[in-house]
């Protein structure tokens, strides 16, 4: 079965979920890799990782010194048993206060029920910075040999917040919403910008949006 630029051996996918088997730095380690390899040995065609933060405002997995080495080790181990591997690129937006301990970054200062923290309203420059983070994450995944990247745009995270009228109501920074290069201040322009990011650059062979 053809998926983007690669072919999987069947239609069975292990969908993304957190294993709680990561190394202390949040990256794949021996225990998590063994978990994925067991799935590959069992015949699964495509394995998806859990979320990986792309910016310091939420914890940047790709800024870790061992990121390239560990993603490569995971990919090679999975490939050895015939499966393909894709990883999630993620920013939780207003839901990120519980992770950073400070004000989460979001399109507007509208609190979310999980923490009720008042978000920091992202500026145009900060929005571009986050978009570039998706590109940098994808570049590392590609260099590590990962087959594809999934931009996590579901579950009320940052990309959803740009699309939804609820978290972007009131004082939404309209300049930030058009910072992806759009000529009009539309909040829908940012969610698609990571697929076209040039500052990273966005070079992963098979990017997809969840």
Could you explain the architecture of this structure?
With 210 residues, the protein is α/β, with parallel strands linked by helices. It has a single domain (11-209), classed as TIM Barrel (Alpha-Beta Barrel). The protein is built from six helices and nine strands; from the N terminus they run βββαβαβαββαβααβ. The strands form three sheets. It has a five-stranded parallel beta sheet, with helices on one face. A two-stranded antiparallel sheet has the order 1-2. α1 runs parallel beside α2 (67-79). The radius of gyration is 17 Å and the shape is elongated.
Radius of gyration: 17 Å
Total helical segments: 6
Helix content: 25-40%
Q: Which stretches of 5+ consecutive residues score pLDDT under 50? A: 179-185, 198-205
CATH superfamily: Aldolase class I
Number of DSSP strands?
9
- Please summarize the sheet with the most strands: 5 strands, parallel
- Tell the overall outline: elongated
* Helix-strand category: alpha/beta
CATH topology: TIM Barrel
Lateral arrangement of strands in the main beta sheet: 3-4-5-8-9
CATH class: Alpha Beta
Give the number of domains.
1
- Cα distance, first to last residue? 19 Å
SSE arrangement, N to C: EEEHEHEHEEHEHHE
- The overall average pLDDT, rounded, is 83
Strand percentage: 15-25%
Based on the coordinates given, report the CATH architecture.
Answer: Alpha-Beta Barrel
């Amino acid at each position: 079965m053809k998926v983007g630029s690669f072919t999987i051996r069947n239609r069975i996918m292990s969908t993304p979920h957190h294993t709680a088997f990561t190394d202390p730095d949040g990256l794949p380690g021996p225990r998590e890799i063994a978990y994925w390899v067991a799935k590959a040995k069992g015949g699964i065609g495509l394995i998806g990782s859990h979320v990986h933060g792309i910016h310091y405002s939420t914890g940047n997995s790709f800024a870790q010194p061992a990121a390239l080495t560990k993603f490569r080790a995971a990919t090679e181990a999975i490939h050895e048993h015939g499966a393909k591997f894709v990883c999630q690129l993620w920013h939780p937006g207003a839901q990120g206060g519980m992770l950073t301990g400070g004000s989460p970054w979001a399109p507007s200062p509208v609190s979310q029920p999980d923490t009720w923290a008042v978000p920091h309203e992202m500026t145009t420059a900060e929005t571009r910075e986050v978009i570039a983070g998706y590109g940098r994450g994808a570049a590392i995944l590609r260099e590590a040999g990962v087959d594809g990247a999934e931009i996590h745009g579901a579950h009320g995270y940052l990309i959803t917040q740009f699309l939804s009228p609820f978290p972007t109501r009131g004082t939404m920074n309209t300049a930030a919403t058009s910072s992806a290069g759009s000529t009009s201040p539309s909040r829908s322009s940012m969610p698609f910008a990571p697929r076209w990011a040039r500052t990273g650059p966005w070079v992963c062979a098979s990017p997809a949006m969840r």
